[in-house]
Amino acid sequence: MDQSTALRLHEAMLLTRLTEERLVKLFRQGKTLGSVYRSLGQEATACATALALGPEDMVAPLIRNLGSMLVRGVRPEEVFLQYLGRATSPTGGRDHNNHFGGIERGIVATTSMLGALIPVMAGVALSFRQRGERRVAMTWIGDGGSSTGAFYEGLNFAVVQRLPLIVVGEANGFAFSTPPERQMAGRMSARAQGAFTLTVDGNDAAAVYAAAAQARQVCLDGKGPVFLVCETFRLSGHAEHDDQRYVDPALLETWREKDPLPRFEAWMAQRRWSPDPGLHERLVADLAAAGERALAAPWPDPSTLEDGVFARP
Ligand SMILES: Cc1ncc(C[n+]2csc(CCOP(=O)(O)OP(=O)(O)O)c2C)c(N)n1
Ligand SMILES: [Mg+2]
């Protein structure tokens, strides 16, 4: 990774963390329409994998992969508008949290149905190959989500067809309050039979970036799909309404010490690539202003409720 990529990766991770912090404030003020699903402690997995892609590639994030959307040019203000359900949000107030995308930005919209995006992205990867395009498709899945039928159906199809698909597995210690040993037989990396599999320390942003770049090359060489397992930990509850009292405090503390953000800052400092010292303050101020603009945005007009849902006579 060169210096400019490292600076972009650091800024993306910091922006993700601070955007989510602002969302938590809005949630605690009772302003968001639902809960807030953070990626605290996992920012490296979404940001570094998405950053290793080319602009022509496509992603389908899950709720804990907001960082990948910011990497692809989604503005935090859009995210705030969406969480607040406003008329000017990407879905016009019809959905909340990060359930939106944009084909022009190479983002297939997030959905709640875990695993469902794997067959969808296998289809996207198939379309790239049928059109002779050198592009890859990427999506993410948690340890819990990897127990779905859709995960196996999608990956099996991609293996049989040798599709340019990267599935990033986020082994983050929990699915809601269920630890992997209560719902998963064996290791996560063993679940993608026939796929090229990589396992990486998900809290080491430089290692995740390198692994994702390698995964992309494997796909472009026609040797996909790739299952890239990132071993990480969810430092917050499942969402803001969850106080994670079921997590052993000592375990939480061990993982706090492996926080990917200070760790990457130390990695950069060793190379004398330290980010602009004013970056943090500038991002906080920009996010506060974006949050205020979103709060001032109008609510959707109830008479438009059925637009885009039912055909008008
Ligand atoms: C098919 C399906 N089953 C159940 C749910 C309900 N659900 C939402 S999040 C979640 C836990 C997901 O855990 P994991 O896949 O490990 O992701 P993490 O939340 O840890 O990022 C569950 C069971 C769902 N959204 N989709
Ligand atoms: Mg999980």
TrEMBL record:
* Record keywords: Membrane, Oxidoreductase, Thiamine pyrophosphate, Transmembrane, Transmembrane helix
Record keywords: Iron included?
A: no
Q: Which residues form the Dehydrogenase E1 component domain?
A: 12-273
Q: What EC number is given for this enzyme?
A: 1.2.4.4
Keyword Electron transport annotated: no
> CDD domains, alphabetically?
TPP_E1_PDC_ADC_BCADC
Positions of transmembrane segments: 107-128
The cross-references to SUPFAM superfamilies, in alphabetical order and at most eight, read: Thiamin diphosphate-binding fold (THDP-binding) (SSF52518)
Which leading EC class covers this enzyme? oxidoreductase
Signal sequence: where?
Answer: none
Needed cofactors, names only, are: thiamine diphosphate
Reaction equation(s) it catalyzes: N(6)-[(R)-lipoyl]-L-lysyl-[protein] + 3-methyl-2-oxobutanoate + H(+) = N(6)-[(R)-S(8)-2-methylpropanoyldihydrolipoyl]-L-lysyl-[protein] + CO2
Q: Which InterPro entries match?
A: Alpha-ketoacid_DH_E1_comp (IPR050771), DH_E1 (IPR001017), THDP-binding (IPR029061)
Q: What does this protein do?
A: The branched-chain alpha-keto dehydrogenase complex catalyzes the overall conversion of alpha-keto acids to acyl-CoA and CO(2). It contains multiple copies of three enzymatic components: branched-chain alpha-keto acid decarboxylase (E1), lipoamide acyltransferase (E2) and lipoamide dehydrogenase (E3).
Q: Which family does it belong to?
A: Belongs to the BCKDHA family.
Q: What PANTHER family does the database record attribute to this sequence?
A: 2-OXOISOVALERATE DEHYDROGENASE SUBUNIT ALPHA, MITOCHONDRIAL
Q: What is this protein called?
A: 2-oxoisovalerate dehydrogenase subunit alpha
Q: Organism source for this protein?
A: Geothrix rubra
